[in-house]
Specification:
Layout lengths: L2 H19 L14 E5 L2 H11 L3 E5 L14 H9 L2 E4 L9 H7 L5 E3 L11 E2 L2 E5 L7 H18 L4 H26 L8 E6 L3 H7 L2 E6 L9 H13 L4 E5 L5 H11 L6 E6 L14 H15 L18
Parallel strand pairs: 1-2, 1-3, 3-4, 7-8, 9-10
Antiparallel strand pairs: 5-6
Helix pairs in contact: 1-3, 2-5, 2-6, 5-6, 6-10, 8-9
Length: 327
Amino acid sequence: MTLRNVARRLCLIAILGVSALAGLGATAGMAFAKPLNVVATTSMIADAARQVAGDRAEVTALMGPGVDPHSYRQTRSDIAAMARADLVLWHGLYLEAQLEEFFLDLEKRRNVVAVGEAIDKSKLLSHADYDGRYDPHVWMDPQLWETVVGAVRDALIKTDPDGKAIYTANADKHIADIEKLIGYMNSVTTSVPEKSRVLLTAHDAFSYFGRGYDFEVLGIQGISTESEAGLRRVEELVNIIVDRNISAVFVESSVPERNVRALIEGAEARGQNVIIGGTLFSDAMGEPGTYEGTYIGMIDHNTTLITRALGGDAPETGMQGELAPSS
């Protein structure tokens, strides 16, 4: 164990000890006279918890808009927040790569659930570069995300059994809303011409979207933003852009644009005009309080933007007319 890991563990133990003395934290099945204190790592999980818990929980997301979960490291205030929480929800599947050891240690002492791990492994995509690991970006396929919503519901029920009826009803409603989203996605994505169904983005976060809606997905970086995009990879993608006459590529809200800009410059140097089709939400949602700051809004935004940029037909303001016209 490195000195850094030793320091983190000592910090965790110290803060957990203070929380225990203060009577903070929770054990599954306790009765609660006030809203549950729920901490989630990503904004997507936090949104699921808010949708399912309603007024029975106050939910905090550690990672806000534009934050990359692959490289995120916990702060002392994060540790304190999780130590005080009645329930901690994290994704798992090696999404929070820098936090995995921390959470595996924390779950021995606190009520901690990796909700992404609820998905049957047969439905997950493996990756040649990560032996024994799966692509963690399951929220890009709403059908898979329904399983995560169910895992959030189950974690809340286990923590607060008195709220079972509310959690179940809210989860059913949210899943029904996701089903409507799936119907919209099926409807608009089929309008994209066959030759244009290539989605080229900053990193390989959209493979589940590609599998579910029949797009070829190409990422400059791998499934983790921690992987570096080499010159050879950029050259390969420039060749693909030119050979297949790809006219639009996409940047992501949580990944720097420099690699996408390099692609565009490389293609233009060879006479191929390429535009940025827009900014997709990949590893984080939009700003809190906006439509794009919800899971439904995030996926609606992505689907509408991709469809329109690649030559398909989708309403400019999205499924529910709530997207900003510039999306």
